[in-house]
Amino acid sequence: MSKIELLQGTLDLLILRVLKGGPQHGWGIAQRIHLLSKEALRVEEGAFYPALHRMERKGWIEAEWRPSENNRRAKYYQLTNSGLKQLETEHEGWKRLTAVMAQVLDGRH
Fold first, then answer.
1. Based on CB atoms within 10 Å of each CB, which residue in 23, 26, 43, 90 is the most buried?
2. 83: nearest Cα among 13, 27, 31
3. SS3 46
4. Tell me: the pLDDT tens digits for 44-92?
5. d(CA 109, CA 100)
6. Taking the domains of the chain in order of start, what are their residue ranges?
7. Left if phi > 0, otherwise alpha if psi is -120 to 50, otherwise beta: which for 108?
């Protein structure tokens, strides 16, 4: 199966969704997306970490440094109330977009 590149808004939605399950460090978020997509989605570091920083600036997520499972220092991210609202908004938008795309691609009116 070929890998699928993620657009910025899509990556934000996936990060927010993963963090809905609880705090996670960056590598863990990327791995979770990879596993949930059955390895179809590739999260590029060049887009991933800037997305985390952008989302932190917007107040959708917050972060703190703490020890990871292997006792190394890692930055853990968690969803804020604003981020939960953004997740709901983006998820609804995604559902509308995919329905319209299916309609156009299938030639339905």
1. 43
2. 13
3. helix
4. 888 899 999 999 999 999 999 999 888 899 999 999 999 999 999 999 9
5. 10
6. 8-105
7. beta
Q: What's the CA gap between 59 and 56, in Å, rounded? A: 5
Distance CA 31, CA 108 (A): 37
Helix, strand or coil for residue 64? strand
Contacts of 67 (CB under 8 A, 6+ apart): 73, 74
Q: What share of the chain is helix, strand, coil (3-state, %, to 5)?
A: 55, 15, 30
Cα-Cα end-to-end distance for the chain: 32
Considering the chain, what percentage of its residues have pLDDT values greater than 70?
Answer: 91
Q: Rounded to an integer, what distance in angstroms lies between the CA atom of residue 60 and that of residue 87?
A: 9
pLDDT grade, residue 1 (50/70/90)? Answer: very low
CATH architecture of 8-105: Orthogonal Bundle (1.10)
